[in-house]
Amino acid sequence: MIHEQIDTIDALMAHYVAGSLPEPARVLVRSHLEMKLDNRSLVKSLELLAGEALESAPVAAIADRDRRLSAIFSSAPPVSVPRAAARPENVLFPQALRDLVGCEVEDVPWRKRLPGFKEYCFDMDGCEVNLMWIRPGRALPAHTHKGMELILILDGAFNDERGRFGRGDISIADETVDHRPVAEKDRPCIAFAVSDGPVRLTGSFRQMIGDLIG
């Protein structure tokens, strides 16, 4: 996803502010910030620190100044931290996610992958982007990652070896994480995932077969 390791939410927010995340990961973070207040103050503080560092940096001559200025002024304006806004009751996706996929949850062209598990996936900016629907109580096969995976919970929740991830939470997983997410039993778990490498199934053969057939 990027060359440096991201293993905490704080590190993810720092890379978001620095502009070093690929576009689908930026959408995931923006969606998280729309859904939860927790990290908005952190992002604002990081933006202030970045601005202060830029102002205190020594002045340096710019090669090809006119071309660079032209590129800057023709680029899209910077995106600020989303403001809290009232959301209609029937709207599940944050605005940033709706803008990316072009629809709401009821219009997603879901494709069944396993019993009790549907997804919609596409590639973007070097990443695999997935929307996932997991039946209540459904366990996904135990696996680890040959890269990095970010998952934003849009509705419902899942539990794994690390704990509970509910609405608005972000799960960060890489090759050091071997987990078996299980959707909670009261409602489906709907999630938005961005990854830059395939998964590798783990666990016993019996558990794997059980998880695959649901």
Automatic annotation (TrEMBL):
| Domain ChrR-like cupin: from-to ranges | 102-193
Domain of life, per UniProt, equals: Bacteria
InterPro entries linked: Anti-sigma_ChrR (IPR012807), Anti_sigma_zinc_sf (IPR041916), ChrR-like_cupin_dom (IPR025979), RmlC-like_jellyroll (IPR014710), RmlC_Cupin_sf (IPR011051)
Q: What is this protein called?
A: Transcriptional regulator
